[in-house]
Structures are given as structure tokens and as C-alpha cells.
Amino acid sequence: MFESCNNPAPGVEPMVQWWGLELQAMQIKFSDDVILDSRRAVLLPRQETLVLADLFLGLGAGRRKRPDPVPNGQHHEIWERLLGLLEDYQPRRVVLLGDIKPNQGHLEDEEGEELRGLFYKLQAHGREVVQVVGHPERAWGPSLENTGIQPMDSYRVGNNTLMHHRRIFVYPRHDPPNGFWINGGLHPLFALPIWEADGSQQWIRYPAFLYTGFALVMPSFVPYAQGWEVMQPERLPKQARAWKVVGDYLLSPIPLADLPNPPDSMRLVTRSGSKARHKETPAEP
Fold first, then answer.
1. Distance, CA of 227 to CA of 153 (rounded, Å)
2. Residue (of 189, 136, 199, 203) closest to 165 by Cα position
3. Domain assignments of the chain as residue spans, ordered by start
4. Going residue by residue through the chain (285 aa), what tens digit of pLDDT does each one get?
5. 54 within 8 A of 220, measured Cβ to Cβ
6. Nearest to residue 85, comparing CAs of 59, 53, 131, 116?
7. 192: which DSSP letter?
8. In whole angstroms, what is the distance from residue 244 CA to residue 189 CA?
9. Cβ atoms within 10 A of the Cβ of 214, count?
10. How far apart are CA 184 and CA 133, in angstroms?
């Protein structure tokens, strides 16, 4: 199944006949060994690897006790996307970037049974499961016992390195230089204008894949995870490219150089659990 996705062609192109950047597709061939899927996943076909960022399927008892629980329909949709990806691509390896549940180092009530069901699906057919987190020492605990999974802070797949850190622009130098970082720790959002039939303009926030020239930054696999709004796309590096996620079956390129500035009302973004905007932290050499 992976071979059928790896059509030889130069540059970034949709996985359908190429007619220019206005074309939209379910998959985007980012490079010879990186494919973006509109179901919020990255495929590495040569390594038969599926990459997911902040899966968070193990919502757990603690989440259900909150006053704003995730609707059952939304939870089922996440399972459908996951099982669809596994069925379509039959990967040999699945890499999870980020935690699989809140407070992953601890179990509460029936969380253990839920997680066993998750790992049963992920590890079916002898599939390898790897977890990459920012702080591996915090992720280990009863939730991973008897799974064979040992969290790590980065993971090399082919020429590229997978990570889960809250940074977009600042990265260590990648080795080898023909590879790049794939980061699932920060999830880009773009405010984009659309025109209504009556000529009025509306603004909608879209999750997106963002390539900065140094790293490919992924959207979260779950739609309710916190995103990072790209407020000044004109300040992105010239080589930056982005694709918005429109539903489960469409990726559409974002013309970064031609984006108008959003209205002031869109710049006042409130992020729950945070009193200030996140700041980029310099990477260690």
C-alpha cells in the first residue's frame, strides 16, 4: 500500500494529477519519503511508518469528569480515522508524538482497560509502536506496563528525526543535512478569509501542516487539542509552506505570501490554562 503512494515526481505535489497550487487533494507528496495525509497524519513510505501527533485517544476517567467532556460522536470519529489509516496503509511501525492520555504516568478508574484496547489495535499484526515525548521520565508508568513501549525524546526514521517540543522556528542543526525535524508538539492554526454569497468576508481558523524550512510541524490528531495560531505569516521564512486541513478528505495549500492580515479581533486569542502567549525557546546546539 505504501508503494502506491510514492509516485516519483519533483517537488511538493498533490497525490493526483498536478495542475498547480490551486489543486487540492487528500494526500500531498511533500518529499520522496514524506507524505501528508488530510486525516492529520504523516506517512514515511520507505520506512513503512505512520506518524500521529497527540493521539490522546486514552481520554481517561479524569477527562470524563470535566464539565466539558468530549462528545461521543467526536470520540468515535477519531477511532474511525485511526482505524482507516491503519487499514489503508498497513504500516509496519506507528510513531506517537506526545502523550496518549492526560497525566500519562498515572492510571485512574477504568483507564487501564481503555488503554489496553488502544494498544491492542495499534500493535496488531506485529506492528511496532514508538512513543516520542518531551519529557520521557514523566510519561513512563502503569499506562505503559506490559506494552514494550519505552518513551524517548526523539526518534530517527530514515533521514528525518521525530520530536515533540513546543517550538516552531528554533531547531538544532539537523544531521544529516538532507533530512529535517518532524515536530508534533505544537499545532499550527491559520486564520483565513472566505467570501460569503452576499460578498461579506468571514474568517475561519484552520489546522495546518507547516514547513518552516527546518521542520515539518504537524496538526494534532484530535481536533480538540490546543493549537498555535500563526499570527504573522509574513514573518515566516521564505521557504515556508503550509497546507490547511479541510475535513478528513482534503488538504489545500495556503498562499503564505499573499495572505491578508486578519482583523484585530482575530489577534486576541485566549488559550485556556495559559496567562501569556507561548514564546519560542532557543534550542540547544
1. 21
2. 136
3. 45-245+253-267
4. 443 333 333 345 444 433 333 345 799 999 989 999 999 999 999 999 999 998 876 555 455 555 555 555 566 788 889 999 999 999 999 999 987 776 676 677 667 777 777 888 888 999 999 999 877 666 666 666 667 778 888 999 999 999 998 877 778 889 888 899 999 998 999 988 888 888 888 888 899 999 998 899 999 998 877 788 887 777 788 889 999 999 778 999 999 888 877 777 766 544 333 444 444 333 333
5. yes
6. 53
7. E
8. 8
9. 21
10. 9
Model confidence pTM above 0.85: no
Q: Please state the three-class secondary structure of 215-278 as a single string.
A: EEECCCCCCCCCCEECCCHHHCCCCCEEEEECCCCCEEECCHHHCCCCCHHHHCCCCCCCCCCC
Number of helices and strands in the chain (H, E): 6, 16
Query: Cα 182 to chain center, whole Å?
Result: 9
Cα distance between residue 77 and residue 81, in whole Å = 6
* C-beta of residue 44 within 8 angstroms of C-beta of residue 90: no
How far apart (Å, rounded) are the C-alpha atoms in residues 251 and 198?
26
Residue bearing cell 482534503: 250
List residues bridging with 36 in a β-sheet. Answer: 28, 42
* One-letter identity of residue 249: Y
Q: One-letter amino acid identity for 102?
A: P
